[in-house]
Every structure is written in C-alpha cells, then in structure tokens.
Amino acid sequence: MLIAAILALAIGTYTMRLAGVLLRERLDLPAGLQRLLPMAAATLLTALAATAALTDGGGFAGVARPAGVAVGAVVAWRRAPFVVVVVAAAATAALLRLAGID
C-alpha cells in the first residue's frame, strides 16, 4: 500500500508540474496562489512521510519510530552525511525498543 501511495503522489506531482507548464499562459492565477502552488508537492510528500513515521497497520506506531525519525531529522539538519543520519535514526529506535519503549 505504501508503494501505491508513493506512486500516486509521484504521478500527481508530475501531473501538477506538467499542468503548470502547459497552462501557464492560459490561466491568470492570483499572486498568492502562484506562491503556494510550488509548495503543494512538498506538502504531499511531507504528509506521506509523517503518515509512514507515525502509523503502523492503521494505528499509532509507538514512540520509538517517531523518535528515530526526529533524531534523523535533527542530524540531517546539522548536515551530517546520509549514512550517519540513517545510523543515528535506526540506533535511536533500536535503543528505545531495547529499553522496552515501543
């Protein structure tokens, strides 16, 4: 189901961007809307990432997974190499689960 959601979002993103190129001269959109449209793809991908990080099988995934994602986000924000980001996130989630915090 996750792959289907990713594919749907990818197709939607591509379609929105293509429509912008093809319809740019035909539509007269307000300036505020023109500023917001490029952020739509990022918003959709953020929603997908949040859903994947916070849920598991339709319910809350527990504390360990979101904590790992948060640590990974902070380490990435500090411009660490990708391998360090992945290891830090995985280690955080693993250590919390090892401590009995699901």
UniProtKB/TrEMBL annotation:
The organism's superkingdom is given as Bacteria
The residue ranges crossing the membrane are 41-64, 76-99
Q: Name one Pfam family in it.
A: AzlD
Identify the keywords attached in UniProt to this record, alphabetized: Membrane, Transmembrane, Transmembrane helix
Q: Which InterPro entries match?
A: Brnchd-chn_aa_trnsp_AzlD (IPR008407)
| Name recorded for this polypeptide | Branched-subunit amino acid transport protein
User: To which species is this protein native?
Assistant: Krasilnikovia cinnamomea
Recall the taxonomic lineage recorded for the source organism: Bacteria, Bacillati, Actinomycetota, Actinomycetes, Micromonosporales
